[in-house]
Inverse folding.
């Protein structure tokens, strides 16, 4: 397990949010050099591609690859949208960047816009981030005043406008095409893909959408080079990430680590183990939309894309939710399914109807009125949602649901056997 | 309908976008900050301000949990109900608040001072349980701290 300070290195600096301390630590030098040397924008895309950086928002797509899909020859304006909706249950990493080192993000915004030749960037933040919004807005003002944004920056002829826009409490707006509709001021239903946003995104124009933490990595990669980045952590999924650990560890926290560490070491070391008097029951490793891991899987899994895939789950937004033996898994999955039912935008029938139906069935089981057929019913409803909807919210609901039903079937069964109605249904079917 | 400074602020928000309509959510939030909720009169004003129909504003305003199309109390409390908070003290927090304020989730106290709303994950899961009072974040809450905060919110 290798601790790292690529992203969080300045968080403890006094006035880390100010442009003054950021520049003292070498900030904006990369941006200035790129402009002064008139670097070929494509060379930045190549650098990021070669770095192996994967998106930190959840899907883990190659960032350089995504940028390369933006058409070079176009009469349309291009846009960058930074995704700071941070609403995946368990996730609290982007907020740290917004609150403690906003200029790192802004330098990344500038470099990304230059690479894809966009002249307008919107940083989309959930409105509950009162402090983060104020901090980023103040930093943007400083960056304009310092001549890092605006017209003809450094006499390079490159123009860049950056502003903050906000969401209003809807998880779905973190889905990239919903985010675009949210910015456009229409009801934020996700869009069908293709067309992909890189070709037809905001206002119908080519648009790059990246997570806050993804963009915060860009200044470091351009400064230190792709090769430096490929050497951090796991070679197939390199880099340094902010991991958020919540739930039943002695010390819930965020921590920056290179990929490729053992999950068990993180729990036992920096998190101080499972809280006193309890033992580990389950971990949801990549935000609530990932498949649950059992203790024996936790003991062997390495935290990188190939490692977590081998255990059938995903890293998602690097949000690790730890549940100990005090938790009833029927209760836990019911809590999560209420989330998805509440957040379904209602556009597709399987998701709109399926998520509340799952809640109803789970409530029935939880209240002791479950039937033996209910576990299969849950899996059947999930089967009819997964892969059949416009966006991945429905899939994100199915993954924790099916994995918990399958891996903790005995807990569901115990509740059902204990239910008086179970006996009567058996009698009826006999 | 609004003071000049507020209109100036709203115009500045509008100027960040190539089309006025894109200022919809930020403008509605700002208007709500001023009026407590988005009443029909405010909705109609925003429609005209952004050159869209009233229905277009309504479609957006009714979608978002943090835009209120019904009146709320003087202060709005949001308590996170999602898993990490749920297993780290949010249940006790909920029970305490419901009893103390004598309201159910979504309700407003008799004196109109507080509206108690449920929120989904507020991105503070490592410092659970979490609540917002008028969008100000409070983390790692003990019941005694909650009492103090309520006391201080006049
Ligand atoms: C329902 C749903 C919610 C999402 N929420 C977020 C979010 O809050 N923040 C985020 O960065 N990505 C979120 N995503 C992923 C985005 O769609 C998109 O993949 C991401 O912002 C791309 O950036 P990246 O490549 O830098 O990760 C969500 C996806 C789905 C399906
Ligand atoms: S899957 Fe659900 S959230 Fe996504 S577009 Fe369909 S209804 Fe909306
Ligand atoms: S679960 Fe409550 S803040 Fe994330």
């Amino acid at each position: 397990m290798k601790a790292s300070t690529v992203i969080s290195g300045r968080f403890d600096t006094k006035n880390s949010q100010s442009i003054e301390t950021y520049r003292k630590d070498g900030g904006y030098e990369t941006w200035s050099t790129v402009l002064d040397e008139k670097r070929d924008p494509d060379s930045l895309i190549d650098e990021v591609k070669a770095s192996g950086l994967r998106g930190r928002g959840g899907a883990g797509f190659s960032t350089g690859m995504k940028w390369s899909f933006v058409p070079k020859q176009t009469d349309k304006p291009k846009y960058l949208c930074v995704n700071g909706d941070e609403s995946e249950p368990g996730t609290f990493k982007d907020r740290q960047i917004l609150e403690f080192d906003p200029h790192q993000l802004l330098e990344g915004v500038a470099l990304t816009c230059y690479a894809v030749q966009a002249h307008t960037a919107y940083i989309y933040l959930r409105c509950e981030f009162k402090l983060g919004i104020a901090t980023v807005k103040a930093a943007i003002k400083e960056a304009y005043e310092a001549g890092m944004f605006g017209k003809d920056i450094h006499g390079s002829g490159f123009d860049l406008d950056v502003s903050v826009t906000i969401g209003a409490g809807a998880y779905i707006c973190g889905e990239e095409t919903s985010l675009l509709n949210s910015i456009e001021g229409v009801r934020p239903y996700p869009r069908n893909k293709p067309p992909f946003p890189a070709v037809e995104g905001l206002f119908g124009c080519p648009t790059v959408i990246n997570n806050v933490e993804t963009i915060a990595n860009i200044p470091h990669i351009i400064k230190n080079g792709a090769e430096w980045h490929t050497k951090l952590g796991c070679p197939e999924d390199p880099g340094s990430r902010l991991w958020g650990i919540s739930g039943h560890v002695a010390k819930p926290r965020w921590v920056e680590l290179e990929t490729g560490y053992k999950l068990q070491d993180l729990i036992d070391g920096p998190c101080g183990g499972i809280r006193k008097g309890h033992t580990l029951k389950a971990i949801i490793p990549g935000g609530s939309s990932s498949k649950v891991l059992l203790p024996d899987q936790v003991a062997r899994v390495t935290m990188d894309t190939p490692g977590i895939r081998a255990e059938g789950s995903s890293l998602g937004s690097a949000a690790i939710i730890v549940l100990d033996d005090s938790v009833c898994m029927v209760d836990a999955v019911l809590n999560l399914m209420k989330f998805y039912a509440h957040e379904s935008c209602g556009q597709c029938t399987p998701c709109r109807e399926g998520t509340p139906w799952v809640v109803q069935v789970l409530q029935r089981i939880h209240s002791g009125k479950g039937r033996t057929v209910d576990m299969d019913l849950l899996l059947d409803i999930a089967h009819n949602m997964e892969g059949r909807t416009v966006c991945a919210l429905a899939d994100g609901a199915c993954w924790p649901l099916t994995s918990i039903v399958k891996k903790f079937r005995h807990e569901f069964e115990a509740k059902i056997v204990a239910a008086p109605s179970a006996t009567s249904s058996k009698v009826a079917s006999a | 309908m609004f003071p000049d400074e507020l209109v100036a602020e709203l115009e500045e928000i509008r100027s960040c976008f190539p089309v006025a309509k894109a200022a919809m959510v930020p403008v509605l939030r700002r208007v709500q900050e001023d009026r407590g909720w988005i009443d029909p009169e405010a909705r109609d004003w925003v429609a005209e301000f952004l050159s869209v129909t009233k229905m277009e504003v309504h479609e957006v305003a009714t979608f978002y949990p943090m835009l209120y199309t019904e009146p709320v109390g003087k202060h709005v409390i949001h308590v996170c109900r999602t898993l990490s908070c749920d297993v780290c003290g949010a249940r006790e927090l909920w029970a305490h608040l419901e009893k103390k304020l004598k309201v159910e989730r979504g309700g407003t106290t008799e004196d109109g001072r507080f509206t108690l709303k449920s929120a989904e994950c507020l991105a503070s899961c490592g410092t659970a349980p979490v609540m917002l009072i008028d969008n100000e974040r409070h983390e790692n809450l003990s019941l005694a701290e909650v009492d103090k905060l309520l006391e201080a919110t006049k």
